[in-house]
TrEMBL record:
Protein name as catalogued: YciI family protein
Organism name: Nonomuraea helvata
UniProt domain YCII-related: residue ranges: 1-111
Listed InterPro entries: Dimeric_a/b-barrel (IPR011008), YCII (IPR005545)
Family label: Belongs to the YciI family.
Amino acid sequence: MRYALLINERPEAYEGLSADERAAISAEYTTLMKDERMLGGERLQPAETATTVRVQDGEMLVTDGPFADTKEIFGGFYIVEAGDLDEALELAARIPATRLGGSVEVRPLVEL
């Protein structure tokens, strides 16, 4: 079954880390992408680049930024092929954001 691993990061998670520590974290993400169960994924630009669209009473409202009332921001995602939820959870736990104060939402994809 395919799952989306939705990565939520703390915006300040990388502050104070040395260049070597940042490189080590990037290497972990690269290693994850080489796992045969990874079907794809992308890292998003910073939250400041987001634009949010809402429709109220038939009128489109566009605002800058995500304006999510949360301490975490949506930073990227992976699409994986896993045998079951436990396998998807194991992959999610390997994502560095999970130990840097962030979280990963694991959600099965609708199979068409």
